């Protein structure tokens, strides 16, 4: 019975499309990072900043639409431990996004590679999960997209002090405050989502 429920849950939340989308993002990230790092007029692995900022963002945005069902209010009437289901949903998604993207940055992982990809995955998922509670699953992508684009457009020259707290999408993985910011965003966003679930709106017909 649990296997059937799991299949129904994944189908209702667009699980297969999400997995396919993450695979496409990973391939694009690998191709983009390899190209940027190999150009003689760039800074080698340090040129992978666009990939580190955008690939985890795209993975988190793909997750957003899966955080709520077509009729969230109807789903909640079923006698299921929804907090447990939500926890499993988010954790599996984080492992899939972070694990897949980290494989694309194994060359010099400490220089805008695997480490930064994992950090940004955690922060992006936390932002999207928290936004799903406030805005609903269909609009959960907005805050993360806006924040990452704004920070990328205003990339700071110095990551000292408190800069890592807000510039985590483009900060080197050696900046401790960027990891603290990612941890806070992930913990708070996911905790609120586990407790409340995605905002109930009009069911999709």
For this entry, give a set of tags.
66% helix; 205 residues; 9 helices; mainly alpha; globular
Tally of separate helices: 9
Number of strands: 0
The class by helix and strand makeup works out as mainly alpha
Which stretches are low in confidence, meaning pLDDT under 50 for 5 or more residues running?
A: none
What portion of residues belong to β-strands? Answer: under 5%
Task: Name the helix and strand elements from N-terminus to C-terminus, one letter apiece.
Answer: HHHHHHHHH
Q: Any overview of this molecule?
A:
The protein is mainly alpha-helical. The chain has one domain (2-196). The chain is 66% helix and 0% strand. The protein has 9 helices and no strands. The protein has helices spanning 2-12, 15-38, 49-64, 72-75, 82-102, 114-135, 141-153, 163-166, 176-196. Helix 2 (15-38) packs parallel to helix 5 (82-102) and helix 3 packs antiparallel against helix 5 (82-102). The chain is globular.
Short description:
The chain is mainly α and 205 residues long. It contains 9 helices and no strands. The two termini are 27 Å apart.
